[in-house]
Amino acid sequence: MSIIATKNLNYFYQDGDMQRYILRDVSVDFEKGKFYTIVGESGSGKTTFLSMIAGLDSPKSGEVLFDGSDIKKLGYENYRRNKISLVFQNNNLVPYLTAAENVLVAMDITDNELPSDQKTVAYNLLDYIGITREKADRLVSELSGGEQQRIAIARALATNSDVILADEPTGNLDEEREAEIVEIFKRLAHENGKAVVVVTHSQEVADKSDVTYRLKKGNLINE
Ligand SMILES: Nc1ncnc2c1ncn2[C@@H]1O[C@H](COP(=O)(O)OP(=O)(O)OP(=O)(O)O)[C@@H](O)[C@H]1O
Question: Which residues form the ABC transporter domain (predicted)?
């Protein structure tokens, strides 16, 4: 059973009198336990698609379903806060907080039930994705790009959601760092049972995912 599904999703940008379609009748399922990538030429609509399934924007017609319910009915804000986690290329961490504090902030925001000892959980999550205790107590601005992206992933895990959505999460990283981040995504899908959906320009990242969709002329095609 899919955790996220789209049904006949349509989206266009208004261009004067014209409607420029970016997504045409897109119906696709994402399951827990799988690592998905979405590829496509620049401007093909990858980020637009991710914004739909992240509840950041609403489709012109069609539905995004979470566990069978239209996310519009769940409420976009509730959906974003509690059901999914987002990771961006520029990681959106708070630079003047430590790594651990960044993870703790995310725990504060969610309504999901979390273990009471949040500090321990934050350090454990960071440790799980390769940030040592010493680095966890450093300001984010004093860590490398690859380390920052790991922290962004630890933060995404802090709310305990079943879905990780990422837009070009390795866009600023060299090949080696990219490969490390990809291994983390694989682990989150295969060992932790999450649905991981990553928009990427990188063929290497796509090659390591379980399922790749290519966005072309408004359609998502399984590769
Ligand atoms: N707010 C907007 N108003 C009008 N057109 C837009 C808007 N946002 C995006 N577009 C256009 O919609 C198309 C799809 O954009 P989108 O960012 O989804 O593509 P993408 O595949 O993620 O591209 P990239 O790989 O370059 O990030 C592009 O042609 C873009 O110029």
Answer: 4-223
Distances (CA, A) of 43 to 97, 201, 206: 34, 11, 18
Phi, psi of 19 (to 5 degrees): -105, 115
CATH number of the domain where residue 187 is located: 3.40.50.300
- pTM equals 0.93
Of residues 117, 127, 122, the one with CA closest to residue 147: 127
Range of the domain at 171: 32-44+77-222
Assigned domain for 104 exists: yes
Q: Which mutation among 10, 15, 22, 37 tests ligand 1's pocket best, with the greatest number of atoms within 8 A of CB?
A: 22
Residue 124 lies in a domain: yes
Phi, psi dihedrals of residue 182, rounded to the nearest 5°:
-60, -40
The CB of 83 under 6 Å from ligand 1? The reply is: no
What pLDDT is recorded for position 90? 81
190 phi and psi angles, rounded to 5 deg: -80, -35
Decide: 52 in ligand 1 pocket, CB within 6 A.
Answer: no
> What are the DSSP E strand ranges found in the chain?
2-15, 18-31, 35-39, 61-66, 69-70, 84-88, 163-167, 195-199, 211-216, 219-222
Identify whether the C-beta of residue 122 lies closer than 8 Å to the C-beta of residue 104. yes
CA of 103 to the centre of ligand 1 (A): 30
Rounded-to-integer distance, Cα 32 and Cα 61, Å: 25
Domain membership flag for residue 129:
yes
**Is the model's pLDDT at 46 over the cut of 90?**
yes
